[in-house]
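Proteins fold reproducibly. Take a tokenised chain:

. . .
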Amino acid sequence: MAGKILVIGATGNVGRPLVKALLARGEAVKAASRTGKPVDGAEGVVFDVADPMTFPKAFEDVDRAFVMLPSGYTEAKALLLPIIEAAATRGVKVVLQSVLGVDADDSIPYRQAEIALETSGVRWVVLRPNWFTDNFVNYWKPGIDAAGVIAVPAADGKTSFIDARDIADSAAAALTTDRFDGKAFNLTGPEALGYAESAALISEAIGKPVVYQAVDDDSFVGILVGAGVPEVYARFLASIFHPVREGWTAVVTDDVRTLTGHPARQVAAWVKENAAVLKS
């Protein structure tokens, strides 16, 4: 009999749709979050990525786990390695949410977490998503609301934004079959768009002008800190726009379809679906 699936970050943009997808497949799910509250009918369990004391109870009766670092954290290697070790000592298969492009350099902390998993002796799948389409609500909406502006240090760089639901669907597939074990997948949307193009889509959907304003890193950090984002995390976000400016995030793959059987969702479709949220 199969064990339970632990979903870390179960209340987040990827975790919540992943819990739903797994429950729909008849899986027993432990929804891990700092509150430990049940999620959409799944059993809740307290889990704090920064507190290894919460790990043993979370991993009880688990044979597969979705491991990720929730937003707001920057120390990928330091925080992910103890979770990977906890899974490995229990023989738990790990589907790790990493970041697109980290395989370019083994010194990148997320890549070091991947290597630790790959050499741990347990079954594993690595998912490397690009920037989330959902960031237009989660991070850029205050600028849209206040001034009709998306101000980020992306220059003219394009990004193949991915819908968080496609990451969740990909993770559900990786967790419920062994066909993808021992492989890494680069998850992208079906096309690369610049921020000006994305702003135009949002403007059309909500019926008010929205424009893209290219800013430098310090201005960007100031905007985020003014919106309540801690400075250390704001500077981390600024740093990861470097690959966008270099054109590295414009890559498009078909890995979502490989994993899920369906094509990745387009930004235009996401914008239409979320028009009411973007307007509010």
In short: The first strand starts at residue 4 and ends at 8. The chain has a mean pLDDT of 95. The CA atoms of residues 9 and 15 lie 5 Å apart.
